[in-house]
Amino acid sequence: MTRVAVLGAGSWGTAFALVCADASSDVVLWARRPELAQAINERGENPDYLPGIALPAGIRATSSAEEALSGAEYVVLAIPSQQLRTHLAPWSALLGPASVLVSLAKGVELGTAKRMSEVIVEVAGVEDDRVAVVSGPNLAKEVAQRQPAASVVACRDAGVAERLQKVCHSPSFRPYTNSDVTGCELAGATKNVIALAVGMAVGLGFGDNARASVITRGLAETTRLGVTLGADPYTFAGLAGLGDLVATCSSPLSRNRTFGEKLGQGLSVADIAASTRQVAEGVKSCESILDLARRHGVDLPIVEHVAYVVRGEMTPVEMLRSLVSRSAKPERHGW
Ligand SMILES: NC(=O)C1=CN([C@@H]2O[C@H](COP(=O)(O)OP(=O)(O)OC[C@H]3O[C@@H](n4cnc5c(N)ncnc54)[C@H](O)[C@@H]3O)[C@@H](O)[C@H]2O)C=CC1
Ligand SMILES: O=C(CO)COP(=O)(O)O
């Protein structure tokens, strides 16, 4: 039986652990707080992040990273992007020599502008052919309810991607392989920022034209950034690109879209952040993605405008007005 360690018992870590257990793996789920690990083991559910969803018997929780990592062939990192480096550093010495590291996080690191797979390679000191990414339209609650969903397993090494694909191919979860790690990661991180912009439009009371326009132009700028950084343009038309963008920008389950909606309704960043324990990655990644784009001379107007709102330099209505009144141009200008 394949041994999988999932580090991070938030909503997506727990849902992904359930997928791997459904796909017949032996899963150990690491929670930061011992009381959460205990509750998961005693109640067979994660009361803080996925209440009411029964977890399969194949999942065992622990707050000891050493216990979770012991013998793990796949080490799944389900920690928010800005916390990944700090958490991974002490775990690196505990990793098996052939273990595969899998990132679930959708963000870009502040300060370094690095993608999560780059952070993992640097901190764990492993080659990038041992680092994989899972990204797609995968709202945790729906996945945990075993509603059908597809996703992408990306790794530079095709053999590693195919083996990981089997590890998480359950009766309700269908992963496809892809070798474009850069494209999948940039798509996953940037869609969170686009979802903030869509949420603001919804919160302001605008309808489907505004939503579809922001989604489509958001995809255009994401593709422009990705292609400049060497990604495959087709990735952005796939599950990790358009698929995740549509799911996140349409669903009230999305934390990023909901965060944006509250901004559109007039609440402040600080008040919204204080009202939830869950991460809306786009609130921080708007700055790191903008930083990355500037380092490569790429124009990302929607991401830039979301950053203005998050910094308090524009209101959501000013943001949308400013985006609409930008200088006229052809729909396709470069990628
Ligand atoms: N929830 C979802 O539907 C999906 C989430 N993701 C991505 O997965 C990653 C993890 O997200 P979730 O599990 O949904 O997050 P969550 O907010 O539900 O849980 C966060 C997890 O990280 C841990 N953590 C460690 N240090 C933390 C800190 N300083 N602050 C906050 N939490 C900390 C928490 O204990 C918890 O286990 C994010 O990058 C997210 O974008 C990807 C696909 C789906
Ligand atoms: O990434 C997600 C769905 O694929 C979840 O999006 P949120 O982080 O906005 O909830």
TrEMBL record:
Where is the protein situated, by its record's location annotation?
Cytoplasm
Q: What class of enzyme is it?
A: oxidoreductase
Does this UniProt record's set of keywords contain NAD?
yes
Q: Which GO terms describe its molecular function?
A: glycerol-3-phosphate dehydrogenase [NAD(P)+] activity
User: Pfam families, per this entry?
Assistant: NAD_Gly3P_dh_C, NAD_Gly3P_dh_N
Which SUPFAM superfamilies does this one have?
A: 6-phosphogluconate dehydrogenase C-terminal domain-like (SSF48179), NAD(P)-binding Rossmann-fold domains (SSF51735)
Question: Which positions in this protein are listed as binding sn-glycerol 3-phosphate?
Answer: 106, 136, 191, 244, 254-256
Domain Glycerol-3-phosphate dehydrogenase NAD-dependent N-terminal spans what residues? Answer: 4-158
Query: Which terms are listed as keywords in the entry?
Result: Cytoplasm, Lipid biosynthesis, Lipid metabolism, NAD, NADP, Nucleotide-binding, Oxidoreductase, Phospholipid biosynthesis, Phospholipid metabolism
Active site positions, chain numbering: 191 (proton acceptor)
Q: Which family does it belong to?
A: Belongs to the NAD-dependent glycerol-3-phosphate dehydrogenase family.
- Protein name, UniProt field: Glycerol-3-phosphate dehydrogenase [NAD(P)+]
Query: Whose protein is this, by species?
Result: Tenggerimyces flavus
Name the encoding gene, please. Answer: gpsA
